[in-house]
Specification:
alpha/beta; 6-stranded mixed β-sheet; 12% strand
């Protein structure tokens, strides 16, 4: 087993036994697509592993698994997306658990409901604590446990499975044991489990493999059974009446047979607080168990703590709907494919948005990346591509947009723009239209990365009329698209970039965010966007410095409607850079980065933030820029300086560097080569630029010349490293980009819940919660007088 870190599971190995614990406490251990995918991955890898013979599936002590995550369905209904989901992965997961080349053991404590019962029924051995209960609540909402029943009937027989489904009754562990759903019962169940594993641990992999192959031959489950189960499941989850019942329960805590919402404090199931943004997001509720009991109301005059906040509730629901994601979270593009195909697909399949890093890559590689991303994504999952302003090669930007239009890319991250360009406007307007009922349709979304208000204003206003007219004249857009574009901002997502990696103005988020939001509000009033409603509303997000829950919460408190991370994703398994770079990044602190001259904008003195720990790159880059400013040509360099550059910086003569550079210009920019050769100053700049390209290549390859690595990185990674120290995320080989994202959001939601509780206590003139004593723990927002 080479993958032991997941976002919904806690996995550990002990000899020939693999333990997988379902761990979604924020959602009552409910089932979502990510959980199904990750469980399937665990059982697939275990079956293939040479020495793994047993997989133990566990839940939390109080709840094994609560069934379908109703919050996902409610979110989809609210945003107008398809509420049905593909049940085949769940069915195939159950089949793999039942018949793959590994013995499966369910260790059940607390509640097992709906799909959770399916997980239990599919296992070879079921061990339960006396606290365990089992129920099928689907029919309460007009649903049918269609995928669960074939495996439950296999264990208990038809009538008992039928009784559970039809009556929605909850049965305790003893009854389940009598009916055959549970094989062994005892308290404490841990000791019972250990005794079983002692015997199971004696079995060989070869023996288990042959035994399970024989069971497959005896299986009573036919392909017809599968087809009927999947068709029935799709029918009931696509029924509008059922969806309305689910949404009502998820958002109001009201069961289908109830006419009014329950009183505060008596709603069954976990609830969530509204998001801190202006527009609250819905709560997330797992499928309820019919045996749920009500919660006692709080005593009068006491401060009622806020319910636990779901990570999905953070940020803007309109961002999620526009980009087709479950979380208001994105991972920014990192050039040269460091934001890789694997990184983008991992985030997409987790319900988040990842942008592929196209900078410095030829178009054929970009096109290949789009193809591979689509192949790796689950149906309906989202992804984005980077779109770079390129003043040196504007034709490349235009051809990139043509590629995106041809492949139906729906979201782009617009980077390094000082003002709108013709290709950028083409991308935006080509995605506008109306549906059969005359409603606006926006198929292309731009997230504009900005750090200056004068640049942001270009994106907040409609596309410039001269550029629109050129597109019309060239037949690249229709008159309808031009008219629709005049009513909308060029970009509806403005990502405010503060102290981040790579190109940055080094801005302060505490200053930039309020300024950008005020600018957004002013321009929106001037343009009359309110008349268009949410279709024209601009969302303001935050990037730069976000590596811990505290930083994420600070951004949300400043009004960020979505979060964009960067540096922390570069030190993950999926990042497309070398292991040597990741080894270095894993040990960074918050003070181990520095601003240095940028190679792509060398002559104008633009700067990037890069790693300084263990590297000479920032100092050497600065030296090259100073030499460029002081001298007019390479011939002006004194012999000692020239020797230093050749032996320490370039590892070759300046003449050799120029010949390589000249060959590149002749191939890519032949018209420019003559101008460069006539200007000694330009020639010197191009020779010095070679070092920046070379230092990037060294880092990406993991070459021995580590002191010259150019690694763009911000201080957020140092903060992240400190946050995860001593956990499973400390070594970078345990860092998966989707796991990092979900843990960051989950802990941010928990921190916000805690802060709201502190405020609630103060508002009620009560004693606020005692602040934690652990180092680095969150402190209350204020203290009582």
């Amino acid at each position: 087993m080479d993958r032991l870190t997941y976002s919904t599971l806690r996995v550990r190995e002990q000899g020939s036994v693999l333990f997988a614990q379902i761990h979604r406490p924020e959602a009552g251990n409910a089932i979502n697509a990510t959980l199904v995918h990750e469980l399937d991955d665990v059982f697939t890898r275990a079956a293939r592993a040479e020495h793994t013979t047993v997989v133990v599936l566990e839940g939390l002590p109080e709840v094994f698994c609560f069934g379908a995550d109703f919050g996902v369905i409610s979110d989809a209904a609210r945003s107008g997306r398809d509420t049905s989901f593909d049940p085949e992965p769940m069915y195939e997961l159950f089949r793999r658990m039942a018949y793959a080349d590994v013995l499966t053991v369910a260790h059940v404590r607390g509640k097992a409901n709906a799909g959770g019962v399916g997980l239990v029924a599919a296992c070879d051995v079921v061990i339960a604590d006396e606290s365990a209960t089992f129920s099928l609540s689907e029919l309460l909402f007009g649903l049918i446990p269609a995928v669960v029943l074939p495996y439950l009937i296999r264990r208990t027989g038809f009538q008992r499975a039928h009784y559970l489904a039809a009556t929605t009754q909850t049965v305790d562990a003893r009854q389940a044991h009598e009916w055959g759903l549970v094989d062994a019962l005892g308290t404490p169940s841990d000791a019972l489990l250990r005794r079983h594993l002692q015997r199971l641990g004696r079995l060989s992999k070869k023996g288990v493999t042959r035994y399970k192959a024989y069971l497959r031959e005896l299986s009573p489950l036919t392909e017809h059974t599968k087809d009927v189960a999947l068709a029935t499941n799709r029918q009931v989850f696509g029924d509008p009446d059922n969806v309305r019942a689910i949404r009502r329960y998820a958002e109001e805590g009201v069961f289908p047979w109830e006419s009014t919402p329950p009183k505060p404090g008596t709603a069954p199931g976990p609830a969530t607080a509204p998001a801190p943004a202006a527009r609250p997001a819905p709560p997330t509720r797992p499928q309820p168990s019919p045996s749920e009991t009500t919660v006692e109301p709080q005593p009068p005059h006491s401060a009622t703590p806020p319910p636990a906040l779901s990570p999905r509730a953070l940020g803007s629901p309109h961002f999620r709907a526009a980009h087709g994601v479950d979380y208001a979270y994105a991972a920014g593009a990192m050039y040269k494919g460091i934001a890789s195909v694997d990184l983008v697909t991992a985030l997409g399949n987790a319900g988040m948005l990842g942008f592929f890093g196209t900078g410095g890559l030829p178009l054929d590689e970009v096109e290949d990346a789009i193809t591979r991303i689509r192949k790796g994504l689950d149906p309906g999952r989202a992804f984005g591509m980077n779109l770079l302003n390129n003043p040196d090669d504007p034709d490349l930007e235009a051809r990139t947009v043509e590629l995106y239009l041809r492949h139906g890319v729906r979201s782009v991250e617009a980077s390094a723009y000082l003002r709108p360009t013709l290709p950028l406007v083409h991308y935006r307007l080509a995605g506008l239209g109306t549906d059969a009922e005359g409603r606006l349709r926006q198929d292309h979304h731009i997230i504009a990365k900005v750090s200056r208000t004068e640049v942001a204003e270009h994106f907040l206003r409609p596309a410039p009329e001269p550029l629109v007219r050129r597109l019309l004249d060239d037949g690249l857009i229709t008159p309808e698209q031009a008219a629709l574009g005049a009513r909308l901002p060029l970009a509806q997502d403005l990502c405010v970039e503060a102290d981040s990696a790579g190109h940055t103005d080094g801005g302060n988020a505490y200053v930039l965010m309020p300024a950008m939001r005020a600018l957004r509000d002013r321009v929106s009033r001037e343009q009359g966007y309110a008349a268009e409603g949410e279709q024209a509303a601009v969302r303001v997000g935050a990037a730069g410095g976000i590596g811990t829950p505290d930083a994420a919460l600070a951004a949300l408190t400043l009004g960020a409607e979505f979060l964009v991370t960067g540096s922390i994703n570069q030190c993950t398994v999926e990042a497309g850079t070398s292991d040597a770079v990741k080894d270095l990044l894993q040990g960074l602190g918050v003070h181990d980065t520095e601003y240095a001259p940028a190679g792509d904008m060398f002559e104008v003195g633009a700067r990037v933030q890069a790693v300084r720990k263990s590297t000479f790159f920032p100092a050497r880059a600065q030296k090259l820029y100073e030499l460029y400013v002081r001298h007019d040509s390479l011939d002006d360099l004194d012999p000692r300086t020239r020797a230093t550059l050749e032996t320490k910086y370039f590892k070759r003569s300046l003449d050799e560097v120029w010949e390589e550079t000249r060959a590149y210009l002749a191939r890519r920019f032949p018209a420019r080569l003559a101008d460069v050769e006539r200007s000694p100053k330009q020639k010197m700049a191009h020779v010095f630029r070679w070092y920046f390209v070379h230092s990037t290549r060294l880092a990406l390859r993991g070459a021995d010349q580590r002191v010259d690595y150019q690694i763009h990185c911000g201080p957020a990674l140092g903060a992240f490293n400190a946050w995860v120290r001593g956990t499973d995320l400390e070594p970078w080989r345990g860092r998966r980009v989707d796991v990092i994202a979900e843990r960051l959001l989950r802990e941010t939601a928990a921190l916000l819940t805690e802060r709201l509780a502190a405020y609630g206590a103060l508002a009620a003139d009560s004693t606020p919660p005692t602040p934690p004593t652990a180092p680095g723990g969150p402190a209350p927002l204020a203290t009582a007088e």
